[in-house]
Amino acid sequence: MTKSVQFKVHSHVLKLLGDQLIGHDRLAVFELVKNSYDADAKTVTVTLDLLAPVPKISVRDDGIGMSADTIENVWLQVGTDSKRNAAARKRSPLGRFPLGEKGVGRLAVQKLGDTIRLVTRQEGKAEHSFKISWGALIDSARYLGDGLAVEVGEHASPEEFKSASESGTLVEITGLHHTDWSRREIRDLYRLVTSLCNPFDDESSFKVELELPGNEAAVADLPTLQDMLASAVWEFGFEIDEGGMITWDYKFRPPKFKNLTPQTKGPVEEKLALIAPDPDEVRPRAVQLTKAGADIEDDHILLRPEDLEGIGPIRGSVYAFHRRDEILKASGAPQQLKKWLDQQTGVRVYRDNIRVFNYGEAGEDWLGLDARRINRPAGKLGSQSVIAQISLDLAKSAELKEKTNREGFDENAAFRRLKRVSVSVFDLFQRQHAEDRAAIDRALKGDDEPPPVQAALERLEALGKKHNIEKEVKPVLQAIKAELKSIQEVMVASGLAGMNLALIFHEIVHSIDRMQRRLQAGVDPEDVRKELDHLRKLMETFKPLLQRDPTRNVSVDDLVRRAIGFHADRFARHEVVVSNWTADPKQRHDFSVSVPRSLMVGALSNVIDNAIYWTRFRRERDGGGPAAILVLSSWDMETGGMIAVCDNGPGFQLPRDFLGKPFSSTRAGGMGLGLFYCKAVMESIGGSLEVVDAAELNDVVALPAAYDGTAVVFRFQKK
Fold it and tell me: Going by C-beta distance under 8 Å and a sequence separation of 6 or more, which residues neighbour residue 201?
């Protein structure tokens, strides 16, 4: 026996979809502004009037307004497809693509107050209005569909939009849940409203203004975005077309400080080199796809058109600041600007010039710039040093879906690809700015900021305190700090004291970053303690790795075979042809050297890794022949021996005087520590390291013409 039972939805779900779904008041205001944008408004005025007899928040626009039919069949229908059906997904008369698509954004007004009054008028038509008291409406019926009714009136004489040519919509919220706004909350609302439409685009046809009757003084001292951008030391603009080509320009605008020299680069058009994908976000190769919506596979270096499917073209700008007091003062930036930067820095995302939250909000480092700065402190900028924007075309970025709670995109494959492309753009900018950044650091004669990893641990401690788990976090962090000191001592004892600690911390960056995300999410203290324990144990593993092998006689052939062996699977996977002349009876020049074997094999392996990257880079950039690497050796009775790693890549990209300089790299995502490590190893055994054009080896050996890239030469003194 079966029975047909009606599926019912409690009217309380309206409360869940409004007040409890939106994170905070400011996002509720944003939802109303988005509706104005969709209505082709040119100007929106947000008013926070707390001193009125009845405190209120209102949003008034000059858009097309609504008819009685639109009110009944669109605004008063929850979950309507009016903005996502095929007919609606087209551009408006002002060329706009509708932002809303879930049909629940209008319920966000419940976050602000209990009562809404809406007045609207289309040009030359009658004005209409209605009023909703949410509590009374929800209590009037137990289930949705059981008589939830709203009275819609037509005005004989317009009350708000009085001119015959006027049109628009006014949404007025009273019965505010929060009437005692602090100075800080008012200033936060000002920051939000001034960033809703893209302030980087002077030609935008959409403007949002804020009125604060009686509270104007709360924001009177705040600088504008233009004030801040004028104090930026670096400016970087870019456009990526759907074919995967990036066009960029770079400006260095230092203040008048110790003979610092401005410079510009560009416009430059090239293929964008991608950083390696985040290991935490890459699917197993067996399930990776190439169709739209799939993850970027890790077997290509340069951006491809298919990587942008579902994302579309990307453009943007980066304004970067040097936050030392000396530079800010020389830039004419007051202390107020420094405080303002704390709240305004970050990387915002705009679609059709309307902001996507919560990217770019304080503490939302969605690209992981802070973690990358730990990895390469001297060459990268953290999120608090940049004001940046990434702009997308709404119609062409359909695979990027906004979360229902309006706090970012769903973290699907398209979003992961957007993150990788965006971080690669920042990496490109930071490689351009590195030389100028070094010039400022030299002018400052030192850096009194705490070591980056030390600073990261201090931030973790502060987050632990914020989330009331300081007792669980602090002891473990103290143990990690003790490990840092111990590692430094081991490095001194092992003869590698000159190497920057960033080389050692490369492997723990992801662990630190993961912990920061966990703490910010307020997870269970036991999970955090386990994560911290894992980090401490990870650091302990570095001690034996830092102990230098005893010096021993080892053949060149043995060293090369071991180094090549580390990359055997990569040669096949990336279709790189490798030739080892040290093992070829016709070409070999075998000899023995007295070296710490593990250090020497590590140095050779490092150079081979670079060669694999750059040969693949050239093949993807130029197309054509295979990527090829040749390792050879030579012995001279007078000068000693050498091992050379030759390739057919694009040639050494840095000035020769940058050889072995830490944090100097043109490789996407590169730390600039590989050749630094190799140089340190060779100098520790009395040898030397050289980087030359491969053709220069023809004086020593008849090199095939195909190897027209770089040769990295390890030279050993005759004993």
Answer: 353, 391
The residues facing 348 across adjacent strands are 389
Position 602 pLDDT exceeds 90: no
Cα separations in angstroms, 693 against 631, 636, 699: 14, 20, 12
- Cβ-proximal residues to 156 (8 Å cutoff; 6+ apart), any chain: none
| Mean pLDDT calculated for residue range 245-274 | 92
Segment holding 459, helix H or strand E: helix 452-466
The angle at the Cα of 357, spanning 353 to 363, to the nearest 5 degrees, equals 125
Residue 64 has pLDDT above 50, yes or no: yes
**Residue the block writes with tokens 């490109």:** 428
Convert the pLDDT of each residue in 673-699 to its tens digit: 678 778 878 887 889 999 889 988 888
- Evaluate whether 219 touches 209 at the Cβ level (below 8 Å): no
How many other C-beta atoms can be found within 10 angstroms of the C-beta atom of residue 354?
22
Strands (DSSP E) contained in 544-639 are 551-555, 576-580, 592-596, 627-636
Q: pLDDT value at position 618?
A: 93
Q: Which of 174-183, 245-254, 588-597 has the highest mean pLDDT?
A: 245-254
How many whole angstroms separate alpha carbon 509 and alpha carbon 595?
31
Q: What would you measure as the largest C-alpha separation in the chain, in angstroms? A: 106
| Six-digit token string for 488 | 């430094």
pTM (2 d.p.): 0.76
CATH 3.40.50.300 corresponds to the domain 551-716: no
Summarize pLDDT for 404-441 with one digit per residue, the tens. Answer: 766 789 989 999 999 999 999 999 998 898 888 888 88
Distance CA 694, CA 707 (A): 7
Q: CA 102 to CA 22: how far, in whole Å?
A: 14
Q: Is the peptide bond before 698 cis (omega within 30 degrees of 0)?
A: no
Which of the given ranges, 146-150, 215-219, 659-663, has the highest pLDDT on average? Answer: 215-219
Provide the 10 A C-beta neighbour count for residue 386: 24
Pick the CATH number of 13-222 from 3.30.1330.10, 1.10.10.60, 3.30.565.10, 3.40.50.300: 3.30.565.10
DSSP E strands: which ranges in 352-488? 354-356, 386-392
Residue pair 69/125 in contact (Cβ under 8 Å)? The answer is no
Give the residues across from 239 on adjacent strands: 247, 315
